[in-house]
Amino acid sequence: MNRKPIEPATKERGTPATERTSERIVERIVELSVDGQKVSVPEGATILDACKALAIDTPTLCWAENLTPVNVCRVCVVELEGARTLVPSCSRKCEPGMVVKTDSPRVRTSRKLVLELLSSSVDLSTTPCLDKWHAHYGADPARFGPAAAPAHAGEREHAHPGHHDTPDGAHAARVAQPPKLDNELFVRDYAKCVLCYKCVEACGTDAQNTFAIAIAGRGFEARVATELDLPLTDSACVFCGNCIGVCPTGALVFKREFDLRAAGEWDEARQTLTTTVCPYCGVGCALTLHVQANQIVKVTSPLDSSVTEGHLCIKGRFGWQYAGEKTKRSEG
Ligand code: SF4
Ligand code: SF4
Ligand code: FES
Q1: pTM of this prediction?
Q2: 205 CA distance to ligand 1 centroid (A)?
Q3: Which residues, 6 or more positions from 322, have their beta carbon under 8 angstroms from its beta carbon?
Q4: What's the pLDDT tens digit per position in 272-312?
Q5: Among all ligands shown, which has an atom nearest to the Cα of 47?
Q6: Looking at ligand 1, which residue's alpha carbon is closest to its atom 7?
Q7: Which CATH number fits domain 175-262: 3.40.710.10, 3.30.70.20, 3.30.420.10, 3.90.180.10?
Q8: Who lines ligand 1 at CB under 6 A?
């Protein structure tokens, strides 16, 4: 996987260098142009890295700093001079002399359509930045018609594997379905799933190497599934929660957050974030505690922690209820 840290790129950073001496390795620099601006980035940087160096806001869904790019959402595409198709900026490596456009009519149309197709079929109400992207690209998901009825619990798991039903043309197909509540730690609300593969990557070779989940089905029936669609508690899942940590839409969510949202009490403006060290073992994982009303409501880990790279085990991710119990007892 691509875990080589990309140092911040600089504009006009001088002469490319390839020198390797016994004392030090001199970084090779690649120069390219993005939206008419020259930018220099370290060899291996992506077009997305170059965009970030120029403060060009680029929508992403399936990309994450701590995962291997899988290029499935295509919301980050850019126009590359000389290329027949638009290219995903999150994975395309910069090459010398590239001429990139990030806001051309082709790029805007493509991003708009991706956003419309996703928003018409998936509940993106808890996806950060969505309103901003919709406004910027003029996305109108409602143009595909009124939403189709939601599926019943378990219906999508048994929906004609490999067969594509002809749409009725009057409704926008949706992946709406009831959330899966099969354990006390986290909820899988696949009505919010954009099939970005991030959870599968985090559960597999990019972090956990447990392989409890995979993409099953094809086309519109594709979904994240456990083996034989078993409940998580009967699957290979070890409840590390690394899938929750990377999910971009809130489809995977801490049970406590799910309950607070359902009660209308989830309020990030009232939450404090404190980064500390996990108390359980000697590894020293960094934990960021999200606290609301004196209760830990979820735990994440900083992406720039060299120990965790944002990933945790079940103890760090979920083993904090005792702190809440202690607070409740001392308040009582
Ligand atoms: S909690 Fe961990 S083991 Fe379970 S599905 Fe998520 S990433 Fe895989
Ligand atoms: S559950 Fe979340 S992380 Fe997994 S594929 Fe769906 S949107 Fe992506
Ligand atoms: S973020 Fe680049 S393809 Fe998804």
Answers
A1: 0.89
A2: 12
A3: none
A4: 999 999 999 999 999 999 999 999 999 999 999 999 999 99
A5: 3
A6: 203
A7: 3.30.70.20
A8: 202-203, 208, 210, 212-213, 237-243
